[in-house]
């Protein structure tokens, strides 16, 4: 009964529905390109990467969830001075990522504006001015 009423209501509403102009109301999803940098891992994920082998070796039948739970427990019991080590690694990875993102944004803006990449200055170590390859 209720489904029938909902179907009638839906049909009545759709009869007078006018879609939005333009993109149809959907937001465009920005797709990552091949050259886009990958987000850096957090301190916890760096810790997990280092310690995963320690957990898996004595427990080869552990499922992925069991391994994750064990690593999370190890992280919460980890002393703060050891966590600082992973925080420093995560911070440096974040800085590298930020630099790569900035470079990538500059390249994308250059592509959109139609500008060409800046040319590298030729090195003057060859000593020959006529390097056009026309030797007869």
Plain-language structure description:
It is built from four helices and no strands. The chain has 136 residues and is mostly helical. The chain has a domain of 73 residues: DNA Binding (I), subunit A, CATH 1.10.30. The longest helix has 34 residues. The protein is flat. The N and C termini lie far apart (93 Å). The mean pLDDT is 83.
Task: Write a concise keyword list for the protein shown above.
single chain, 136 residues, mainly alpha, DNA Binding (I), subunit A, 56% helix
CATH architecture of one domain, please?
A: Orthogonal Bundle
Radius of gyration: 29 Å
Task: Give the ordered list of helices and strands.
Answer: HHHH
CATH superfamily of one domain: High mobility group box domain
Helices, by number, come to 4
Percentage of residues in helical conformation? 55-70%
Report low-confidence residues grouped into runs of 5 or more: none
Major sheet attributes: none
Structural class: mainly alpha
CATH class of one domain: Mainly Alpha
Into which percentage range does the β-strand content fall? under 5%
Which overall shape is indicated by the principal axes computed on the Cα atoms? flat
